[in-house]
Design a protein that fits this description.
DNA-binding; TetR/AcrR family transcriptional regulator; HTH_TetR; Tetracycline Repressor, domain 2
C-alpha cells in the first residue's frame, strides 16, 4: 500500500512539474491534457486522474510555481532580521530569481498576472490572494524599517509603505519584461540597484 501511495505521489509531482514548464511557455489557458500526455508518455486519463479535472491541474501548476518563488526568494530572506535587513536580503534573492528564472518565460507570477487579471475564476482568485500576501510581506518589512529609521516615511509623498511596495514590484515587472522581451542581460542588476535605492533612507 505504501509503495502505491509513493508511486502516486511521484506521478503527480512529475505531472505538475511538466505542467508548470508548459504553462510558463503557453500560459495556464494553453495547458492541455493532450500536450501533457504526449510530453509525459502517458494516457490522457492517467494525466488528469490525480487531479479530477483540467482546472484542478491548472491550479496545481500555479500553486507549484508560487511555491517555487517562495522557496527561492522569501524563505532565504527569513533568516535575516525583520525590517531593512530582511527586505534587502529578499531584494537580492528576488533579483537573482529574475536573472536566473527556473521558467522558460521568466517570472511565472508576473506572466500569470497579465494572463488572469481580467478572467474571473478560481485561478485568478488564488493568484490575487498570493499577490496580496506578497505585498503585505513587503509592506511589513518596510514598516518595521521605517519605524527603526532605516527607511524614510511619509504618507502621500511616494515613500510611504504602500508607495514603496508599488515601486519595488513595478521595478521587478519592468525587469522581467526587459529580460524576456528585450533580451537585456543587464536588467536584473539594474533592478537590484534601483530597488536598493528605493528603500534607502
Amino acid at each position: 500500500m505504501r509503495k502505491s501511495v509513493d508511486e502516486a505521489r511521484r506521478t503527480r509531482d512529475r505531472i505538475v512539474s511538466t505542467a508548470v514548464m508548459q504553462a510558463s511557455s503557453s500560459g495556464l489557458s494553453g495547458l492541455t491534457i493532450g500536450s501533457l500526455a504526449e510530453a509525459l508518455g502517458m494516457s490522457k486519463a492517467g494525466v488528469v486522474g490525480p487531479f479530477g479535472s483540467r482546472a484542478e491541474l491548472q491550479l496545481a501548476a500555479l500553486t507549484r510555481a508560487v511555491e517555487m518563488f517562495v522557496e527561492a526568494v522569501v524563505t532565504p530572506g527569513l533568516g535575516a532580521d525583520p525590517g531593512a535587513a530582511r527586505l534587502n536580503a529578499v531584494i537580492d534573492r528576488w533579483c537573482d530569481y529574475l536573472a536566473d528564472s527556473p521558467f522558460p518565460n521568466g517570472c511565472f507570477v508576473t506572466a500569470a498576472s497579465c494572463e488572469l487579471d481580467g478572467r474571473p475564476g478560481e485561478l485568478r482568485s488564488y493568484l490575487r490572494r498570493t499577490v496580496v500576501r506578497w505585498r503585505a510581506f513587503l509592506r511589513e518589512q518596510i514598516v518595521v524599517a521605517q519605524a527603526a529609521g532605516d527607511i524614510g516615511a511619509g504618507v502621500g509623498t511616494g515613500v510611504d509603505a504602500d508607495g514603496l511596495v508599488s515601486g519595488l514590484i513595478g521595478i521587478a515587472m519592468a525587469a522581467n519584461q526587459e529580460i524576456q522581451l528585450l533580451d537585456d542581460d543587464t536588467a536584473a542588476e539594474r533592478a537590484r540597484g534601483l530597488m536598493h535605492a528605493v528603500v534607502r533612507p
